[in-house]
């Protein structure tokens, strides 16, 4: 009996540069495929079953190439390695270990768990940003209405009646006039500034310095450090628990993490391990990046030979700490934002209301 073949169509024969998997598709590929393999279904049949059910063209293309490579005799991990923009080094290494040790289903489950935890962490960080962004957006809208809609409508009345305008009103009118007259140049300047920043951030040295500077911003730096520690600890824990050696695990984690400061630190740790040094010594020498508790837990892992458990424990309690940090930040930022925004809106509101009050008082209302 011949093997089932994937259907050849023009739109599934080549991976596109912007092809990606959604979080739901990752769940199907890793978790569901792992469950099927655990139940005795072969890898190829499992992929074919998922391929037949999916409607996404991008996911179709990804599955198509994975299946075709398997049918031509390639390893699952080797096929994934051809698509680095879809499957990162962490995924490829875990799949490779699973293939070599006969624990592919376990590797798939670990990968799915990793992405689920990473997604939860991302949601926590985004939730902390939503409230301030909404408040700032509302403030900008209110100020823009007062300055560019309401004030221009009543300014001619003040001028015609020779009302002595207070400083706040004259300041706001002047600022509005400048923006109205030169808005195009300002827009161009902002766009050019953003483009220049984007280009500068492509340079490793500039990006490193910017990210390093953020580690010293009060309030925010605590959240940044804990998020990065949670991310690389989760990666290292999963890699080490799957059987990846310590040095390759640190190299994979370094390649997978986006923060340039922590990425360089992980690369240096990998090099120091190769030179015979302990991980704990490096962490202790860099207290700005790694807390004493993290250092101590890593040392315990080194002494007991269970670094995987140490890093997974670090990831777990750090994620719990992130919840507390977000609550504290929200509690602290709320009054600060209210004070700043209240002052700004109050200043603009006074600039509009004060001359109206003077006008009504002058004519006897």
Please give a structural write-up.
This protein has 365 residues and is an all-alpha fold. It folds into two domains: 10-87, Receptor-associated Protein; 103-365, Receptor-associated Protein. Helices cover 79% and strands 0% of the residues. The chain is built from 14 helices and no strands. It has helices at 23-38, 43-53, 57-71, 76-81, 89-101, 104-160, 167-202, 204-214, 220-241, 246-256, 260-274, 279-284, 292-304, 307-362. The N and C termini lie far apart (97 Å). The mean pLDDT is 86.
Q: Termini separation (Å)?
A: 97 Å
Determine the fraction of residues in helical runs and give it as a percent range: over 70%
Structural class: mainly alpha
Order of helices and strands: HHHHHHHHHHHHHH
Portion in beta strands: under 5%
For this entry, give a set of tags.
T2SS_GspF_sf, elongated, transmembrane, Receptor-associated Protein, Type II secretion system protein GspF domain-containing protein, 365 residues, cell membrane, 2 domains, mainly alpha, single chain
